[in-house]
Design goal:
Number of strands: 0
Structural class: mainly alpha
Number of helices: 19
Largest sheet: none
Oligomer: single chain
Order of helices and strands: HHHHHHHHHHHHHHHHHHH
Helix content: over 70%
């Protein structure tokens, strides 16, 4: 018999439908933001270690791995985000056994995906890296880094997949701790492996896997304990066809976002190599610096959307439309505020940001122009990301996929085909800014139209439920 009693909910899950939205956003988003900031800082500091300890060409080699890393993350978030969203909706419906099935299925799918994707990629690693824009100067660094990362994908996938479920089932602080643990171990080991042991860029990758291994153990202990609200249950189902389809359907949006980001970065790398000529490798390194900085602020916004996800999913499942709208509205303003700060920092201090990664003057000069052009439209990026993840969190993956594709593929790729031919490398940066602005306008219009429709549906549904309740309580004639 399915567990559905309210008493089965931990206090943190019950409050998703009752506490003030602002309080809940702090409770759920702050731990996710802290974890996102720590992860972003790790990526930045790791790049600094590589740039300072190995050299500017290693930064370029690392930039070449970005599209492949996007694919690695994409095949994981396909499961992690879909599983987290569905588990939140099940909690809103008080279907505890079904949430348990989600945990079991996410664990199984993470292992399958990591073995299949990691194994196939290792077989064709050099060919993939050359396709992504590697040259004879940069491929040794890219290969060394990715070999270690790919061997560690089973650990990475299970950690990321279950950590998302942990946050969605009412343990945001524990999910934050697991991310902080991963980052802390990484930051301690990276300089030792790179500078002391002289392992170069391979040392940075090994430090990454060691950090994720510690978090992997932490997350497994949580879900193996029967004290945890939702945990592994050997008697429940570990691979259910209908549930897997739902996980894939909702997780398809972040997967496509990462997959299209992979395609776009390949296109960017080739565009940069074409217009930069003999300075192509250095220009790709400059893009790597811009990308790391961009992702720092984007990851903070993702921390906000991760905190919003259980609130949105629970209240949408409970048919509480007013709380859904309030969560969305507050999240949008927070997202805009975060990316606006990013715009101010990069417009005011572009050289200071670049100098953290490299001492190469040409790379700093190219990155300066990139920061000033690309970040022009950056303030609205936060709004677009929140809206896109909003549709994903309430179980409307097609809209989320559509908005993801418009920003990274439908708008950006044609612009990259046109603008660099007329404006050189400045056209590359301008294409990214223009696509962000166009995607923001489309996301805003889509949200307004869709929310009006959903509001009418909820009003009709709630009225029908109210009438049915009156009929059942009315005295017999």
């Amino acid at each position: 018999m399915s567990k559905t009693a309210t008493s089965n909910h931990p206090a943190s899950a019950i409050t998703l439908g009752t506490s003030a939205i602002g309080k809940l956003l702090v409770q759920y988003s702050v731990p996710a933001i802290i974890a996102a900031v720590a992860t972003s800082l790790y990526n930045i500091i790791d790049s600094i270690f590589i740039g300072r300890g190995v050299g500017p060409m290693a930064i370029s080699g690392l930039a070449i791995t970005f599209p492949l890393m996007n694919l690695v993350v994409g095949f994981c978030t396909l499961i992690a985000v879909g599983g987290a969203t569905i588990s939140s909706i099940f909690l809103g419906q008080k279907a505890i056994d079904r949430a348990t099935d989600v945990v079991n299925n996410v664990m199984t799918l993470c292992i399958i995906h990591s073995v299949v994707f990691g194994g196939l990629t290792l077989l064709f690693l050099d060919e993939i890296l050359y396709f992504f824009g590697a040259t004879s100067e940069t491929i040794p660094y890219a290969r060394e880094f990715m070999q270690v990362i790919l061997y560690g994908t089973p650990i990475s996938y299970v950690f990321i997949g279950l950590n998302n479920i942990m946050r969605a089932t009412g343990y945001p602080k524990k999910a934050m701790i697991s991310a902080l643990l991963s980052v802390a171990v990484n930051l301690v080991l990276a300089p030792i492996f790179i500078f002391t042991f002289k392992w170069g860029i391979k040392g940075a990758a090994l430090a990454t896997i060691c950090g994720q291994s510690s978090a992997f153990i932490w997350v497994l202990v949580h879900f193996c304990s029967k004290k945890s609200f939702v945990h592994f249950d050997l008697k429940r189902k570990w691979l259910v066809g209908n549930l897997v389809k739902r996980i894939y359907a909702i997780g398809l949006s972040p997967f496509l976002m990462n997959a299209t980001a992979c395609f776009v970065v390949v296109f960017l790398n080739k565009s940069i190599l074409d217009v930069a000529g003999v300075y192509g490798n250095i220009a790709i390194g400059a893009y790597g610096i811009i990308n790391r900085t961009t992702m720092f602020f984007v990851m903070i916004v993702f921390g906000v959307t991760q905190g919003m996800q259980p609130i949105l999913g629970f209240n949408y499942g409970a048919r509480n439309w007013q709380r859904v709208v309030e969560t969305l509205r507050k999240g949008i303003w927070i997202g805009i505020g975060i990316t606006t700060i990013g715009w101010i920092v990069t417009e005011a201090f572009p050289d200071a940001v670049s100098s953290m990664f490299t001492t190469d003057e040409l790379m700093i000069r190219i990155a300066r122009a990139g920061f000033r052009i690309y970040f022009i439209a950056y303030p609205v990026v936060g709004c677009q990301i929140v809206i896109q993840n909003y549709f994903q969190s309430i179980g409307h993956p097609r809209l989320s996929i559509f908005l993801s594709l418009t920003r990274q593929l439908i708008f950006l790729v044609p612009l990259l085909w046109i603008l660099p031919r007329h404006f050189g490398i400045d056209g590359v940066w301008g294409s990214m800014a223009a696509s962000d602005m166009l995607a923001f306008v489309l996301a805003l219009v889509t949200m307004i139209v869709m929310n009006r429709r959903l509001h009418r549906e909820f009003a009709t549904s709630n009225q029908s439920s109210s009438n049915a309740a009156k009929d059942t309580t009315a005295p017999a004639p």
